[in-house]
Q: What sequence folds into this?
């Protein structure tokens, strides 16, 4: 006999996986935009430092989300 909650749990994990993938793509797009914007500024422009801080935060978040994505994928496998 199958677990009636099993399908619901799987669907929830699939939704979590999709949301994580979407979030990673959005962060990557923002990171790409930041890096492109920084190339238009002088290296000593104070905005470069601000943008670099945001880029570091995005990259750290991408790394965390990618690890979570891997775990979700393993759970579904």
A:
């Amino acid at each position: 006999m199958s677990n009636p909650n099993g399908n619901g749990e799987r669907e929830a994990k699939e939704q979590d996986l999709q949301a994580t993938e979407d979030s990673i793509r959005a962060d990557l797009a923002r990171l790409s935009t930041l890096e492109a914007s920084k190339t238009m500024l002088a290296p000593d422009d104070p905005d470069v430092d601000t943008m670099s801080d945001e880029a570091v935060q995005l990259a750290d978040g991408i790394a965390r989300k990618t690890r979570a994505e891997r775990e979700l994928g393993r759970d579904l496998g």
User: Anything to note?
Assistant: The chain has a mean pLDDT of 93. Residues 46-77 form one domain.
